[in-house]
Write a structure and sequence with these properties.
The complex is a heterodimer of chains A (419) and B (468). Chain A is α/β, with parallel strands linked by helices and 419 residues long. Chain A folds into 3 domains: 9-231, Rossmann fold (3-Layer(aba) Sandwich), CATH 3.40.50; 240-270, no CATH class; 308-381 and 388-401, no CATH class. Chain A is built from 15 helices and 9 strands. In chain A, the strands form 2 sheets. In chain A, strands 5-6-7-3-8-9 form a 6-stranded mixed beta sheet, sandwiched between helices. In chain A, helix 3 (102-112) packs across helix 4 (117-130), helix 13 (330-340) packs antiparallel against helix 15 and helix 14 (347-359) packs across helix 15 (391-401). Chain A is globular, with a radius of gyration of 24 Å. Chain B is of the alpha+beta class and 468 residues long. In chain B, the strands form 3 sheets. Chain B has a 4-stranded antiparallel beta sheet. Chain B has a 4-stranded antiparallel beta sheet with strand order 3-8-5-6, with no helix packed on it. The longest helix of chain B has 37 residues, at 94-130. The mean pLDDT of chain B is 89. Classes of the chains: A alpha/beta (419), B alpha+beta (468). Chains A and B meet through helix 1, helix 2 and helix 3 of A and helix 1 and helix 5 of B.
């Protein structure tokens, strides 16, 4: 009999009404919200201003009390102190002590989690590295720019290596590099089995990193579901080819018209996303050692956040092997081919590549078929003739296989070309 | 408890980094270091040191009271600037958060009190070394015996005035003094006679002698030790510069002690002291003091008026039981107890109100606690004897205020009662029993009640402001 996994968050009929001085109802901020977040999910909470996102988050954290309804976090009340030690929270603004230095800030919050001294010190340094503020460790947070304070805010949210991370507008105030790093981090943490609730106005951020969204409006839940299911247009297809001559293009059009009685809607050249272009320019500047007083580098996720328990790893392996036994969609296969430049033979081989990546080993040149999922004991040598794929490309493959959308893969707005 | 200390550390860091501590220390240092120069003109060394101690300790108490209330701003700021959202999302029990703030405030109070005490102590010895002497040896001896010491005071045993009045009443009954009195009320007559007998006893006419008996004078009876007789006389219709001359005999020959004769020439209406060897005290630790309203100085006029010893401490014996340093330390503990209470008040007010309102509430309670005894006494005076609630509008108002104030007084300590500054300035012992009473009553019970209430309210309140 399948064991039911305890949801990380479960709300039932959650309502919050703000009252005035005379206890008269003034604003009904959240109405009958039924929300369930299961372990390992990365959920986006969307909604315009005043839709009740932040109120919902504050109720989840026990900072506001519901007027009606129930909340449970890890099966307990949100005011339970033990529950809070499993949560990381980044509020909509960083709300840090202005007089404490960056390092002291992280140390302070580490103390609140009762972390041992050596763990606190180690994590503080690694998190400062991650957010690129190691060189500003002793500078008071009050002197930081909004983006730098945001980075420290993120670091404090991760100091306890939380199982459940709540991020309220995590990319607000951040430069594109910071935004990208946070999105990478969320993806990485999501892959490691962390549960994440992300509230944002920036829809692209949510689309990039979340696998499920909940949309609120006027305190009511208006929609929720898997992002790919919600956004895919089942009645259209997109075909990416090398540059075609006008003759070939005309032939394609004719063929489509003849066989499918359909016309090509748009023909365009794929283009980079502005984010990718910007990051390339900054990387060039960093390579030329141009100085800055702001955040530098960073983006390296500390080991303690990468650590997954044996049980977690086993779960991932099992799920991937199970997925590998199913035939992969053709579209995914073609993407894999495009990313690595090599055709893949089967879904199972792709899964093996993913497992190797997750476990941090180099893939064997010819992976044998495995009936039972087993952790490789030693990394297999890579053949000299097969050029090693760049890590970025491998990560994209993982993201695709895990249902994410790789950035910079021709999915940005396309420039229309008149046929 | 690590969370409590972490929160306390954060408050202390805030106080230091936001320059609050620096500004406060500078102000305090400026005040305390300037005062010795300001009191140079206060006459003899003893008076100058007493003035300095009085001003500096009172100013320290006041400044630390203000600082304590100001430190509660840390909690208010966290709520306004919303750092509380981040902190309360961590595994921090709310009661520990409030306790941490309170601990931080009072660690700072201890540090500032210690700093003040050191400066005051140094300044006293600076004054002692540099004050222009009138009579250097006498000045320093007086300072050592009357100020820089912890002395215990014993007041004389009052005669049984009621028994004296009863004897007089019976005598008058026998002689038929009340035979013609209409509606004679024996009880009222007895009261009137008792007052009259006491008034007569307290008055010493020219050439008359009055004997004061002291018990439990538990001093070191060796002759090299000393004790002081401190007295204050009142005289009706005297000229401002009137000098009276009298003789004191200290000791009881019947008990086998030496008798010391002291001839005094003093101005009326002020406290004076005569010092004698401590072997005047009898082995059973009783002391007999005789006073005669007679001029012992040849060629000087006899004081023609009666001399009265009106107040309860009109004549008392003082003897050393401890050091000035110990006394100062015990006084600081009393001051700390008051600051502990005030910090709990400030935190409680901050959990309920915005910081300006919390400030107002805390300072009002500070003042009310300081004047509690005076206010209760005034309210008693304001009401006519045995007047009911509905006798008049004024009586209703007075009864209402007194009821409210009596209720509040259950939790409000009497800061006036625990003000040991005057005691220390007069070189009297700030007793350990008094200090323990203050610690238990103010530092633990009342502070604990308010702190518990603050924790309860903070636990129940939503820490986030409205955000939709």
């Amino acid at each position: 009999m399948a064991r039911r996994v305890l949801p990380v968050v479960q709300t039932a009929g959650l309502c919050k009404t703000f009252k005035d001085f005379w206890r008269r109802p003034r604003v009904e901020a959240v109405k009958n919200l039924d929300l369930e977040i299961r372990p390992g999910e990365v959920v986006g909470l969307l909604g315009p201003n005043g839709s009740g996102k932040t109120t919902t988050i504050k109720m989840l954290l026990g900072l506001l009390y519901p007027t009606r309804g129930r909340i449970s976090l890890f099966g307990k009340a949100p005011t339970d102190v033990a529950v809070k030690s499993r949560i990381g929270f980044l509020p909509e603004e960083s709300y840090l002590y202005r007089f404490l230095g960056a390092q002291e800030t992280l140390d302070h919050f580490g103390r609140l989690f009762r972390l041992p001294t050596h763990v606190r010190r180690d994590r503080t340094e690694r998190l400062l590295d991650m957010v690129g503020l190691r060189h500003q460790a002793s500078r008071p947070v009050g002197e930081f720019s909004k983006g730098m304070a945001r980075r420290i805010g993120l670091a404090q949210a991760l100091i306890n290596d939380p199982e459940f991370l709540i991020l309220d507008e995590p990319t607000s105030g951040l430069d594109p590099i910071g935004s990208r790093q946070i999105k990478d981090l969320v993806r990485e943490l999501g892959r490691k089995g962390k549960t994440i609730l992300l509230s944002s106005h920036i829809l692209a951020d949510v689309e990039d990193v979340c696998n499920r969204v909940v949309i609120l409006y006027g305190g009511l839940e208006r929609a929720q579901g898997d992002i790919s299911a919600l956004l895919s247009q089942k009645d259209r297809m997109q075909l990416t080819t090398p540059v075609l001559t006008p003759e070939t293009l005309a032939e394609v059009r004719r063929l489509l018209h003849e066989r499918e009685q359909a016309d090509v809607l748009h023909v365009s050249h794929p283009r980079d996303r502005l984010e990718a272009f910007f990051l390339r320019i900054v990387e060039e500047a960093q390579a030329a050692s141009v100085g800055t007083s702001g955040a530098r580098g960073g983006g390296v996720v500390p080991e303690f956040l990468k650590k997954a328990t044996q049980a977690d790893a086993q779960e991932v392996v099992e799920s991937l092997i199970a997925a590998a036994r199913q035939p992969l969609p053709a579209q995914v296969e073609s993407r894999r081919e495009r990313a690595t430049g090599e055709p893949i033979e089967s879904g199972r081989e792709a899964a093996r590549a993913v497992i190797d990546e997750l476990l941090g080993v180099q893939p064997a040149p010819a992976a044998p078929e495995v009936d039972e999922p087993r952790l490789p004991v030693e990394p297999a040598p890579r053949p000299a003739e097969a050029p090693r794929a760049a890590p970025r490309a491998d990560r994209k493959v993982i993201e695709e296989l895990l249902g994410g959308t790789p950035p910079g893969e021709g999915e940005g707005p396309q420039k229309e070309e008149q046929p | 408890m690590s969370v409590v200390w972490t929160v306390a550390r954060q408050l202390m860091a805030e106080c230091v980094r936001m320059k609050v501590a620096v500004v406060f220390v500078l102000l305090l240092a400026l005040l305390l270091l300037g005062l010795p120069f300001a009191v140079q003109k206060h006459g003899p060394l003893t008076d100058a040191v007493q003035s300095f101690l009085s001003y500096s300790l009172s100013a320290t108490g006041l400044l630390l009271g203000i600082l304590t209330v100001f430190l509660a701003r840390s909690l208010a700021d966290e709520m306004v600037n919303r750092q509380i959202l981040v902190v309360m999302a961590k595994p921090v029990p709310r009661w520990q958060f409030i306790l941490g703030k309170w601990v931080g405030m009072n660690v700072l109070n201890v540090v500032f009190l210690a700093f003040s005490a050191l400066v005051i102590y140094g300044a006293v010895y600076y004054l002692r070394a540099t004050h222009p002497p009138v009579d250097e040896e006498l000045d320093r001896t007086r300072l050592a015996e009357e100020v820089l010491v912890a002395r215990q005071a014993v007041q004389f045993r009052l005669p049984d005035f009621e028994a004296m009045a009863e004897r007089e009443f019976q005598r008058r009954l026998e002689v038929g003094a009340y035979d013609d009195v209409m509606d004679f009320d024996a009880a009222k007559e007895r009261q009137r006679l008792a007052k009259r007998v006491e008034a007569e006893w307290r008055v010493v006419g020219p050439y008359e002698v009055r004997v004061f008996q002291f018990e439990n004078v538990l001093c070191d009876r060796r002759p090299e030790s000393t004790l002081q007789i401190r007295y204050k006389t009142e005289v009706y219709n005297y000229a401002p510069d009137e000098v009276f001359r009298a003789v004191w005999w200290i000791g009881d020959p019947e008990q086998g002690t030496p008798v010391y004769e002291c001839r005094t020439r003093h101005i009326v209406g002020r406290y004076h002291t005569v010092t004698v060897p401590a072997d005047a005290v009898a082995p059973d630790y009783t002391l007999t003091v005789r006073f005669q309203n007679r001029n012992p100085f040849a060629g000087e006029p006899q004081f023609r008026n009666v001399i009265e010893f009106l107040s309860r401490d009109g004549v008392e014996v003082l003897f050393g039981v401890g050091t000035f340093e110990g006394n100062l330390l015990r006084l600081l503990v009393l001051m700390l107890c008051k600051l502990m209470f005030l910090s709990a008040v400030a935190l409680l007010a901050t959990t309920l109100f915005s910081f300006p309102v919390a400030c107002l509430v805390a300072f009002t309670i500070y003042v009310l606690a300081g004047t509690r005894g005076f206010i209760l006494e005034s309210l008693d005076f304001a009401s006519a004897d045995q007047a009911g609630w509905f006798t008049s509008a004024k009586e209703f108002a007075v009864h209402l205020i007194r009821s409210v104030y009596s209720t509040v007084s259950v939790i409000l300590p009497d800061f006036g009662y625990y003000d040991g500054v005057e005691t220390l300035v007069n070189g009297r012992n700030v007793t350990l029993r008094w200090v323990l009473e203050g610690v238990v009553s103010v530092g633990f019970l009342r502070t604990g009640c308010l702190l518990g209430l603050a924790m309860l309210l903070f636990h129940r309140r939503e820490v986030s402001e409205v955000s939709v």
